Amino acid sequence: MKIFFLDQSGKPGGAELCLIDIAKPYKDRCLVGLFAEGSFRNLLQQNHIPVQVLTTQAIEVRKESSLAQGLGSLGQLIPLIAKVVQQAREFDLIYANTQKALVVGALASFFSRRPLVYHLHDILSPEHFSKTNRSIAVTCANRFASLVIANSQASQAAFLAAGGRPDITKVVYNGFDAKNYQSQESDVKQIRQQLGIDGQFVVGHFSRLAPWKGQHILIEALAKSPLDVTAILVGDALFGEQEYVQHLHQQVTALGLENRVKFLGFRSDIPLLMSACDLVAHTSTAAEPFGRVIVEGMLCGRPVVAAKAGGAIELVEHGVNGFLVTPAKPDELAQVITTCLQEPEKTANIAENAQAIARQRFDVTAINQQIAELLDKL
Ligand code: UDP
Ligand code: GLC
Q1: Ligand whose nearest atom lies closest to the CA of 310
Q2: The whole model's pTM is what?
Q3: Of 76, 78, 79, 160, which one's alpha carbon is 20 to 30 angstroms from that of 357?
C-alpha cells in the first residue's frame, strides 16, 4: 500500500515522532508531506523516509481561532490543496497526522478520490481547542475520513463527545522500540557528571515548554521538596511560548532555586537523560492526549509520576507501575518526590514492573501490525 502522509509541523513534537515509527515500514512506498520547514524534515531523512515540504507559507490558524479567522486561512490553503490533490493520485491513501493536515487531506481526499485516515493525537475538548476548531475537525473527519485512529481512549472519548462518528474510530497507542531506551551504565555516569547532578536526587521533566505542560508545577513542587532534590527541564518552546519560558526563569529566581533547576533545551538524547534521572515527572495541567514521555520513562526503567487526567490514566496505575497525582497540585507532587527519595527499593520495584509492562504493551512491531490491519481493511 502506498501512503501519502501529511503533517503540518516542521518541528518534532510527539505526534511527529509517532509518525516516524508509523511511516518506517512504508518507507519504500510513501511520502511525508509537511506544511513547514524545520528539523522534523531532517529526522525523517535520517530515517530514510521520503519527505517533501509542500509549503513554506505559515498557515495562520491557532488552536483558539474563530470561524472568520478559519475561513480567512482557507484561501491561503488552496494552492497547497491543489498540490496535495495532484500528488495524492500517486498513492492509495492519504494519512493526516495533525488537524491542519486533516483539513487539507479531507479536501484532497474528495478531489483525488483517495480514502482518508486521520490520526487523532489531540483531545478535542474546550480546554484545548476553540469551538470552531473542534467543529472543523469533527466535520472534516465525519464527512471525509474512512478511519480515525485515536491515540488513547481519552482522545477517542473527546472526539465522540464533540460529535465524532463512533463507527469510524479505533484506539491505537503509540509504539516504541524498547531497545532504543537502554543505556550503558558508564554513559549514564558520564552524563550525570557532565550535567553536575552526581550525588543528587534528580527529577527529570521532558517536554516542550508550554503552559499546559506544567513545568511551573514541578518548580513549585521542588521548592517544597528536600534540599538534595534537583530538577532538569528538557525541551524547548516549540510553538512560540517565549513568555512562558521567561516566566519559568523568573519563577526559579523568585524561589531561589537557581542551583537546583537546569534548563537543558531541546535534546535528542532523551533515553540517556531519562536514565540519568531518579524520577521522571509528567505535570500537564490539562488532560494529556497520550503522553509519550510517560511510556519512555517506563522503558528506561525509571519511576514515573504523571498528572492524573486524559491518556495518562490509561498508562499509569498508581502504586503498580508508577504514581498519579492530581494535575496542578504541587504539594501532591512534592509528596511523591519525597516518597521516592525515601523509599528507593519500593520505587525501584514499581519502575521494574512498569518497564516490563510497557515493553509488552507498547511494542512498536505489534502496534504497527495493528495499524497495518486497519489500513488493509479500507
Ligand atoms: N522530546 C525530545 N526532546 C526534548 C523534549 C522532548 O525529543 O528535548 C520528545 C519526547 O521524548 C517525546 C516527545 O518529544 O517523545 C513529546 O511527546 P509527548 O507525547 O510527551 O508530548 P507532546 O509534546 O507531543 O504533546
Ligand atoms: C500529541 C499529544 C501527546 C501524544 C502525542 C503522540 O502531541 O499532545 O499527548 O503523546 O501526540 O500521540
Answers
A1: 2
A2: 0.96
A3: 160
Over residues 59-96, the pLDDT tens digits come to: 666 666 666 666 666 777 899 999 999 999 999 999 99
- Read off the C-alpha cell for 226: 528536600
- Ligand 2 atom with least separation from CA of 121: 11
Q: Provide the CATH topology of domain 178-361.
A: Rossmann fold (3.40.50)
Q: How far is Cα 47 from Cα 190, in angstroms, rounded to an integer?
A: 27
Q: Find out whether 247 and 181 touch, Cβ atoms under 8 Å.
A: no
CATH topology of domain 3-175+363-376: Rossmann fold (3.40.50)
CATH 3.40.50.2000 intervals, the chain: 3-175+363-376, 178-361
Report which bound ligand comes closest to the CA of 128: 2
d(CA 147, CA 118): 6
